[in-house]
């Protein structure tokens, strides 16, 4: 059921991808999801995203806000009456915006944690540091544009972009209710560039209890910029 819509621009979206043992990921997913496999691997990752002109649908862009956000995500699939569907499960979202963190499910998909972001961005280089204000999550990444996509998951940048476009529907836990709430990112443009990761640290993916040694490896990354988006938020 459609519950709300938002409009915004993805000013910058850095997708850092991990290849993971499918059995490990299966243990982290709620029903009805299962890992979507690529080259025999489950796909996890971190999405560092700056949103601009964020506002309710049909409101003037001048009333929108700019926020830094980060989401940990897993590519998933599930079955319904139409067949097999694909998307992402997002167990955790963090944001620089107090409004987003406070509004939570009322205006945005799922619960958000408030975090501090430090961003240094040049023409071809990007550094981001994130620390949640409750001290439960820490992230850091440095990246620079590369001539081609690295890693074992995808054969080309175009293959990766197609994969992520098809996975535009994301579900997150709703704060305190035990249900899932989703958002579909709708954009006419879906272009990106390959980047090489110089450094990546995630307190979630680096946790050897959740991801035993050898079960999770950094794979590839790409960056997308200036994508106009309509987000249709739905309940599941």
Report on the structure:
- The chain is mainly beta and 236 residues long.
- The chain is globular.
- The termini are close together.
Task: Briefly summarize what is shown.
This protein has 236 residues and is mainly beta.
Into which percent range does the helicity of residues fall?
Answer: under 10%
Unreliable stretches = none
Query: What is the ordering of alpha helices and beta strands?
Result: EHEEEEEHEEEHEEEE
Oligomer kind? single chain
Strand element count: 13
From the spread of the alpha carbons, the general shape counts as globular
Total number of helices: 3
What would the keywords be for this entry?
mainly beta; 236 residues; single chain; 13-stranded mixed β-sheet
Layout of helices and strands:
Layout lengths: L1 E19 L1 H5 L7 E2 L1 E2 L2 E16 L8 E16 L2 E13 L2 H6 L9 E9 L3 E8 L5 E8 L11 H10 L2 E5 L6 E7 L6 E10 L13 E20 L1
Parallel strand pairs: 6-7, 6-10
Antiparallel strand pairs: 1-4, 1-13, 2-5, 3-4, 4-5, 5-6, 7-8, 8-9, 9-12, 10-11, 11-13, 12-13
């Amino acid at each position: 059921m459609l519950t709300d819509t938002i409009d915004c621009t993805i000013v910058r979206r850095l997708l850092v991808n991990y290849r993971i043992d499918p059995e490990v990921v299966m243990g982290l997913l709620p029903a009805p999801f299962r890992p979507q496999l690529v080259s025999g691997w489950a796909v996890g990752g971190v999405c560092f995203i700056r949103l601009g002109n964020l506002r309710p649908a049909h409101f003037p862009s001048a009333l929108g806000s700019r926020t830094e956000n980060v989401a940990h995500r897993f590519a998933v699939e599930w079955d319904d009456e139409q067949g097999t569907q694909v998307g992402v499960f997002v167990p955790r979202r963090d944001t620089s915006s107090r409004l987003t963190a406070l509004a939570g499910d009322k205006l945005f998909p799922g619960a958000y944690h408030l975090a501090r972001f430090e961003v240094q961005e040049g023409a071809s280089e990007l550094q981001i540091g994130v620390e949640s204000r409750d001290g439960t999550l820490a992230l850091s990444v440095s990246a620079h544009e590369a001539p081609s996509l690295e890693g074992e998951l995808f054969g080309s940048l175009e293959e990766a972009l197609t994969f992520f476009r098809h996975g535009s529907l994301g579900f997150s836990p709703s704060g305190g209710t035990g249900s899932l709430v989703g958002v579909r990112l709708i954009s006419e443009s879906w272009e990106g560039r390959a980047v090489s990761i110089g450094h990546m640290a995630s307190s979630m993916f680096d946790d050897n209890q959740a991801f035993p040694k050898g079960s999770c490896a950094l794979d590839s990354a790409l960056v997308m910029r200036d994508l106009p988006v309509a987000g249709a938020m739905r309940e599941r």
